[in-house]
Write a structure and sequence with these properties.
- This protein is of the alpha+beta class and 453 residues long.
- The chain contains 14 helices and 22 strands.
- The strands form six sheets. A five-stranded antiparallel β-sheet has the order 5-6-10-8-9. Strands 1-2-4-3 form a four-stranded mixed β-sheet. A four-stranded antiparallel β-sheet has the order 13-14-12-15.
- Helix 1 packs antiparallel against helix 4.
- The mean pLDDT is 96.
- Bound molecules: flavin-adenine dinucleotide.
């Protein structure tokens, strides 16, 4: 990028402190957690932006995009940079648009809808919501660091999804505003079904500047860990609790041994050789849950109150994609997949995977409720990586036996498995970013020449 652009953007903002060009800072703010994938590591190492710009309001976002559009400068939005797919890594340099300073919670409406700027950290939103009787419906295990805009742009679900589905379900995202990448950037409101044009599009078709997010009434939670002799027994019990609406739960996560052995800070709750389940369950139901588990042969190894995100131990720190992080700390040959088993044939699917891949695949299941109300045995299995070919074999085999895979080893929206078949994300890109300057290279079905023809 030509140096004159940095000077011009600084002049636009009138605050040099929010235009960062120090190479180390720019490099740091060009990265995310793509290194979870040995495949992406090879592709994305060394990719950096030229400049980080930190707007504080919508007018500044518009001014930056207007300038970048006029001068053909790529712009890659950044929340907290905790994505795993290299979503926030700029492939063609340009501006990293760091939205961390647009972090206001404007209000929490009486019907439990939070109106926020995109840079608000999810942990802050959860804490503020709980003060007035609400809480997030679902959140990633990176809740402390991750931003709401980044969750919408690159995330899918997490803790709470067992009860409330993923971010895209149950009208959790009520509305959002996006700024377009055009000669005169517009602020466009997307409401109802139209939010799906923008959700999980990796910042390729607009910059989200305001969000209306539905919350759920706050619950007094407890946490517990329950060990079973076999993974099959742990899975059966987890499934029973997940699928029965009488249980008020936020987390139901069974792990196959030796995954629990990777959780060093809570190792004392993980008996050698046993499968383990981590639960967040309504405090009023915790004793009943533990009694039900004992009846099935389970051993309660930990039980305690949940006093907010600072609770220690915080069992959610070992779930969702944090599980992979603990595995990688134990042995950096571990990586992962993101799967959804079939609720009916799940046992057979797991058996076939084990027969074929043995301990190359270790089961870590995360239950989530799908948009049509079914309880899905989602999974983020830990995979012992040897070669890309072997990894692709495993993905192909999963798909062959009906296991859905959102491939976390590809760096584009389409390949990640959350691309919408109705093309609404692509159509929005054609409308809002005709030159293809927003996070270029990440939506591969977009061809700028088709638009300009
Ligand atoms: P970023 O990584 O900064 O951005 C993500 C994408 O959104 C990028 O493409 C970026 O360009 C785009 N973006 C950011 N802000 C905007 C904006 N304002 N407008 C338009 N586009 C924007 N994810 C889950 O869904 N569930 C999990 O449980 C989960 N667990 C994780 C555990 C670990 C240990 C790690 C490392 C990651 C995990 N993730 C999980 C992935 C990630 O943490 C979450 O999706 C998180 O919400 C991303 O937020 P972020 O602010 O870091 O986004």
């Amino acid at each position: 990028m030509e140096p004159r652009h940095a000077a011009a953007i600084t002049a636009l903002l009138g605050d040099p402190a929010r235009v960062l060009s120090n190479p180390q800072t720019v490099e740091q703010l060009s990265r995310d957690f793509y290194w979870y994938s040995p495949v992406l590591r090879k592709q994305l190492d060394g990719k950096v932006g030229d400049l980080v710009v930190q707007p504080v309001n919508v007018a500044e976002v518009q001014a930056i995009l207007r300038y970048c559009h006029a001068h053909d400068v790529p712009v890659t939005a950044r929340g907290a940079g905790t994505g795993n797919y290299g979503q926030a890594v700029p492939l063609y340099g340009g501006v990293v648009l760091d939205l961390a300073r647009m972090d206001r919670i404007e209000q929490i409406l009486p019907d439990g809808v939070a109106v926020c700027e995109p840079g608000v950290r999810l942990g802050v939103l959860e804490n503020e919501a709980r003060k007035v009787g609400w809480e997030l419906r679902c959140y990633p295990s990176t809740i402390i660091k991750a931003s709401l805009g980044g969750f919408l742009g690159g995330g899918s679900g997490g803790i709470g999804s067992v009860a409330h589905g993923n971010l895209r379900d149950y009208q959790t995202v009520r509305a959002l505003e996006v700024v377009t990448m055009e000669a005169e950037p517009r602020v466009v409101l997307h409401e109802g079904d139209a939010v799906h044009d923008i959700l999980h599009a990796w910042g390729t078709n607009g910059i989200v500047t305001r969000i209306w997010l539905a919350l759920t009434p706050a619950v007094e939670w407890s946490q517990c860990a329950i060990a079973f002799d076999t993974f099959d027994a742990a899975f059966d019990f987890s499934e029973r609790i997940a699928a029965d609406p009488a249980w008020t739960k936020r987390l139901v996560t069974p792990f196959e041994w030796p995954i629990p052995s990777f959780f060093t800070p809570v190792k004392q709750y993980a008996p050698e050789g046993k499968a383990l389940i981590f639960f967040m369950i309504a405090a009023s139901q915790c004793a009943d849950l533990e009694a039900a588990a004992r009846k099935q042969g389970g051993e309660v190894t930990y039980s305690g109150a949940y006093l907010g995100l600072r609770t220690r131990p915080l069992l959610s720190d070992y779930t969702w994609n944090h599980t992979t992080l603990w595995a990688m700390r134990s042995d950096d040959a571990y990586t992962y997949l993101q799967c959804a088993f079939d609720p009916v044939t799940v046992r057979d699917q797991m058996r076939r995977l084990k027969e074929r891949f043995g301990n190359e695949i270790l089961f870590h299941v995360e239950f989530w409720k799908s948009g049509d109300g079914r309880m899905i045995p989602g999974a983020i299995p830990v995979v012992h990586y040897t070669t890309e070919e072997r990894l692709n074999d495993m993905i192909a085999f999963c798909r062959e036996i009906g296991v859905f895979v959102a491939n976390p080893h590809v760096n584009n929206v389409e390949g990640g498995g959350r691309y919408r078949a109705d093309n609404v994300q692509l159509l929005a890109k054609q409308r809002y970013d005709p030159k293809g300057l927003l996070n270029p290279g990440k939506m591969i079905t977009f061809k700028p020449e088709e638009i300009t023809r």
